């Protein structure tokens, strides 16, 4: 039955949405998806750069040229993803001296993902307006936290190709048995997606699931008998990839095999299956929305841009659909669609269950599950259309506001890391020209910024510099000045030591590190100092070099200006404010699951998340006797309240021996619980600018050489309440 719930005016004759041409429908889908992507990018412009693996890709391409397809002459660990480097190679070919082409390719992938999602939901539900909202929801779905970093470019494109393959196959299905070419095209797209990122194989099931949602199980089986040839063509994509993966897995040690830790696929999946529901389904269906709501409440300084963006999206959907009449599906069809959405969520998360390290994060692990989750929530939209038009638009607006709000927070988080990386890289590049043959670059870090996953482990710092310089560097090492800590990490997260002698720098590896100790003579080293505020101490001999960076036309200078120079585009400040110091400080190792800020300090292991809690809790282990964190503050002349929250102690003896200091002043911290201590800080202890909180406690050699694990600390003026 045709029911007009978008525009109830009876005097206007409208075209049934199901009679639209495919071209007209896709033009509408593309318009809404493109606008949705545009409103995400608009506040930040093209400020995002590489963060982690992107630097390795760029280093290799700058020195060796782009890699479009992996074969046995390339690193074996990636061999099951022979097209995995293709998006990066294309981005480099289209723009080798900047990240503009990276942004364009990512925006295009997200736009096409939204288009494909809209088409699939339209074919399953018959509702044009719900399909348009669904496409936008898939783009802004808040479950995953790695949609925007370029390290996920190949995953985004793999998912996009997989969903496009589903669209083509459903078109072939609906046309019947005389659509062999369409089915072959769909299979080719799906095979390409799987060769880029193997999780795309879950798309094999999506078309049949959507047909079941639309026609029911009985209807699907009846049609399947007449379209069995099309099904065989579609399934051939999975068979071909399976044969390739089986062949390669017996020739080389693959990355996927290392995730199993010696287990077989079936035992590993059986052991991890409970996490499908407690972690995967929970986060995808409702956990991401809870985070999104909390982000909207706590992260925004102004809601003006978010409100205008949501209003524009909803208004665009209304304008584009008001002249079309729709068929509202019956309640049974809506119920089937909801069940199919949950099944697609489970399928989308299933590939990540084999790795405990993937289950422990929300980065890339929910990209494939987000389509099914969006389909599930579309059933709420369809149900709202039965009740009242106003209710439908309110629910759609609320979902888009939560999703878009979370994505803007996510983009802001990663742009902030990129800006900090650019500042550090800029200081190094301005004081080291990269042309010194056989010279080792030693960065003496007083700031505590360097040497961690999100802020240049030594290999990534070398890769980033090699891309900028366009040549290979001999070696790059980072030495933390305060405790002479070398950023060489063993399997338990312990770090090596560095020492300056009269005529050399000596680097001693961590106890269980495979790297040997080494020494570099001072005459063979270029040493740069990073001050406590993150600025590199200028070298006067580099003034001519710095002048060339500003106006030179060589590749080196072009990349410096295009990649490292700050952009004037900063519209996001109106929504999130600036990052200047305030009179209070509240910090943890991460507020939102897997959106981890870089540690600014020394003596800590990498940041971890306890995802077994009802809400994931972040912490970091102290790995030496002394450790510290740096933070910016603009204190006022009053007493302060300090609160420190720990998550674990290696032993009760270590708990009792833990001491805390602020800027070198010992603090008498009173234990209010076993894991929390509080103290009163007198005026004059804190200073304007960079402050340091220190932690002293012994390590336990019988507990992996660890000491205490810290969750958070806060400093607030007395009388203004304690930290969260």
Keywords:
21 strands; alpha+beta; globular; 7-stranded antiparallel sheet; 724 residues; 7-stranded mixed sheet
Describe it for me?
By secondary structure, the chain is α+β, with helices and mostly antiparallel strands. The chain folds into 3 domains: 15-417, no CATH class; 436-564, no CATH class; 585-717, Galactose-binding domain-like (Jelly Rolls). Helices cover 48% and strands 15% of the residues. It is built from 21 helices and 21 strands. It has a 7-stranded mixed sheet with strand order 8-7-6-5-4-3-9, with helices on one face. Strands 10, 12, 13, 15, 18, 19 and 21 form a 7-stranded antiparallel sheet that branches. Strands 11-14-20-16-17 form a 5-stranded antiparallel sheet, with no helix packed on it. Strand 12 (608-610) and strand 13 (617-621) form a beta hairpin. Helix 11 (265-298) packs across helix 13 (331-349). The longest helix is centred in the middle third of the chain and has 41 residues, at 389-429.
């Amino acid at each position: 039955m045709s029911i007009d719930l978008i525009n109830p005016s009876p005097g206007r004759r409208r075209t049934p949405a199901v009679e639209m041409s495919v071209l007209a429908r896709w033009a509408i889908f593309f318009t809404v998806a493109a606008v949705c992507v545009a409103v995400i990018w608009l506040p930040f412009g093209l400020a995002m750069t590489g963060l982690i693996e992107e630097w390795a890709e760029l280093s290799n391409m700058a020195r060796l040229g782009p890699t479009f397809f992996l074969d046995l002459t390339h690193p074996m660990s990636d061999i099951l993803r022979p097209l995995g480097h293709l998006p990066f190679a294309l981005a480099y070919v289209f723009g080798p001296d900047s990240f503009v082409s990276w942004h364009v390719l990512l925006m295009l992938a997200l736009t096409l993902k939204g288009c494909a999602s809209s088409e699939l939901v339209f074919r399953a539900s018959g509702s044009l307006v719900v399909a348009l909202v669904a496409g936008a929801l898939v783009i802004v779905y808040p479950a995953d936290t790695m949609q925007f970093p370029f390290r996920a470019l190949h995953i985004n494109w793999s998912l996009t190709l997989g969903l496009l393959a589903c669209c083509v196959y459903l078109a072939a299905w609906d046309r019947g048995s005389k659509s062999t070419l369409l089915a072959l095209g769909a299979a080719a797209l799906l095979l390409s997606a799987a060769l880029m990122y193997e999780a795309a194989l879950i798309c094999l099931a999506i078309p049949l699931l959507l047909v079941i949602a639309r026609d029911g199980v009985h209807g699907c089986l009846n049609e399947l008998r007449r379209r069995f040839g099309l099904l065989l063509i579609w399934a051939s994509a999975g068979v071909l990839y399976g044969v390739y993966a089986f062949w390669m897995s017996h020739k080389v040690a693959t990355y996927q095999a290392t995730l199993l830790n010696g287990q077989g696929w079936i035992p590993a999946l059986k052991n991890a299956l409970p996490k499908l529901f407690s972690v995967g389904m929970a986060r995808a269906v409702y956990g991401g929305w809870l985070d999104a709501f909390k982000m909207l409440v706590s992260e925004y300084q102004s809601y003006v841009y978010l409100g205008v963006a949501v209003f524009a999206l909803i208004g665009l959907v209304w304008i584009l659909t008001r002249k079309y009449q729709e068929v509202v599906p019956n309640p049974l069809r809506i119920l089937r669609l909801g069940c199919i959405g949950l099944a697609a969520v489970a399928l989308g998360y299933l590939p990540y269950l084999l790795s405990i390290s993937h289950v422990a994060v929300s980065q890339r692990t929910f990209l494939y599950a987000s389509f099914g989750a969006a389909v599930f929530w579309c059933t709420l939209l369809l149900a709202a259309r039965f009740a009242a038009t106003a209710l439908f638009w309110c629910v759609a607006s609320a979902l888009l506001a939560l999703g878009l709000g979370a994505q803007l927070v996510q983009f802001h988080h990663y742009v902030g890391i990129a800006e900090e990386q650019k500042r550090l890289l800029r200081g190094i590049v301005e004081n080291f020209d990269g042309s010194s043959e056989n010279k080792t670059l030693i960065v003496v870090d007083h700031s505590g910024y360097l040497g961690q996953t999100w802020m240049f482990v030594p290999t990534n710092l070398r890769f980033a510099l090699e891309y900028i310089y366009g040549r290979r560097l001999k070696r790059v090492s980072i030495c933390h000045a305060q405790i002479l800590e070398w950023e060489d990490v063993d399997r338990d997260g312990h770090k090596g030591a560095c020492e300056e002698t009269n005529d050399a720098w000596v680097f001693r590896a961590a106890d269980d590190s495979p790297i040997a100790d080494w020494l570099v003579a001072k005459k063979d080293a270029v040493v740069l100092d990073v001050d406590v505020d993150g600025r590199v101490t200028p070298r006067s001999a580099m003034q001519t070099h710095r002048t060339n960076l500003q106006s030179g036309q060589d590749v080196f200078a072009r990349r410096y200006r295009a990649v490292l120079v700050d952009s004037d585009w900063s519209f996001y400040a109106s929504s999130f404010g600036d990052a200047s110091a305030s009179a209070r400080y509240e910090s943890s190792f991460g507020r939102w699951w897997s959106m981890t800020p870089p540690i600014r300090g020394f003596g800590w292991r990498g940041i971890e998340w306890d995802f077994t809690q009802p809400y994931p809790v972040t912490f970091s282990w102290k790995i030496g006797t002394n450790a510290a964190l740096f933070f910016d503050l603009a204190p006022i002349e009053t007493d302060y309240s300090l609160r420190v929250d720990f998550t674990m102690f290696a032993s009760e003896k270590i708990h009792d021996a833990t001491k805390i200091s602020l800027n070198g002043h010992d603090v008498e911290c009173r234990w209010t619980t076993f894991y929390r201590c509080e103290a009163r800080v007198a005026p004059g202890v804190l200073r304007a600018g960079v402050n340091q909180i220190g932690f002293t406690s012994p390590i336990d050699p019988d507990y992996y050489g660890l000491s205490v694990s810290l969750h958070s600390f806060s400093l607030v003026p007395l009388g203004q309440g304690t930290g969260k």
